[in-house]
Amino acid sequence: MEKVEFNFDEDSFNKLFPFYILISSDLKIKGFGKSLAKTLPLIRLNDDFATSFRVKRPQIDTPTFENLVAIFNQLVVIEATAESIDLRGQFQEHNGAILFVGSPWFVSMNQVRERKLTLHDFAFHDPLLDLLHVLKTQEITTQELKELLIKINNQKKALKSDQEELNRLSLVASANENGVVFTKPNGEIFWCNESYLKLTGYSRVEVIGKTPIQLGKCDETSEEELLKMVVPFINGDLFNVEHLHLRKNGDNFWVKTKGQPILDSDGKVLEYFAMIEDITEKKNADFKLIESEDRLSFLIRNLQTGIILEDENKKL
Which of 117, 237, 245, 298 could form a disulfide with 216 if both were Cys (CB 3.0 to 4.6 A apart)? Predict the structure, then answer.
């Protein structure tokens, strides 16, 4: 095979190895690439190589021409002592001198930007920037995964806290002597406690899927009482209404129904919570008191004797 010789001018060589260093036999820097000059602005021609650089791999404490020649044809890492920048490459003989060819050993794109280096400062065959882009993408992906993991853990903690709160509320609702129901936004009951079943006489199967109005409306329920519940329910508002409630056996009893919506973060109704209290005894007592007051008022109006009423301050 015919022997092939390569001859490059400095500009052509710079395109292939823009970070090269040419070292004389007395270890003086006789030349360096344009990109190296941009990366290490303190480097000057005829500077002492042993003063400007340290051979880290393989480690050489005191560089000489001979021990640099001894590490030809292997991977070397040198460090610019003034800049703390590593260069990765190899030493090679060139016309009685030593030629270093390689590129900076950056570990992040931030280091490239700090040196104001661009894609054009690197040889096209140099894979460093591609590797750094891959590393950056991996860092971003890793960071996103970390953030996602933190978010999931926080959601788990919040869910655990919400579940504990729900368990406490469920225990309170279940043990409450008043009837408690939870409904969907359309009014269908999806949960009730035992007290509600005892108050109404219905079974759980008969209650679930029905609305409180379907179960409780009786012939004596007025349109006004219904509107006091239906309108706030549709609007997602609180309501507090006293009305007659139907039992399964056809009897009526007086209840006070307090309802309130459970909203999501956007203010949309997720479900409704209602408490039904049996106030029949109180209502009967009120009716009896009204009847007594009416009878007393009737007697007073029809007495033939003059009557004067005073308050505690002796005022008529």
Answer: 245
Question: Helical H runs in 30-127?
Answer: 34-39, 49-52, 65-69, 109-114
Give this prediction's pTM: 0.47
**Is residue 104 a contact partner of residue 19, using CB atoms and an 8 Å limit?**
yes
Q: How far apart are CA 183 and CA 239, in angstroms?
A: 15
- For 44-78, b/e burial (b = at least 16 CB within 10 A) is eeebebbebbbbeeeebeebeeeebeebeeeebbb
CB 21 within 8 A of CB 90: no
- The pair phi, psi for residue 269, each rounded to 5°, is -70, 120
Q: How far apart are the first and last CA of the chain?
A: 137
Report CA Rg, the chain: 46
At 48, is the secondary structure helix, strand, or coil? strand
Question: pLDDT digit of tens for each residue in the chain (316 aa)?
Answer: 577 777 788 888 989 999 999 999 999 999 999 999 999 999 999 999 999 999 999 999 889 999 999 999 899 999 999 888 999 999 999 989 999 999 998 888 888 888 888 888 998 888 887 776 666 677 777 777 788 788 888 887 777 766 666 555 555 556 678 888 889 989 899 888 888 999 999 999 999 999 988 888 888 877 888 888 888 888 888 888 888 888 999 888 888 988 888 888 888 888 888 888 888 888 777 667 777 677 777 677 776 677 777 778 888 8
CA–CA separation, 18 and 32 (whole Å): 8
Task: Name residue, tokens 């009737």.
Answer: 298
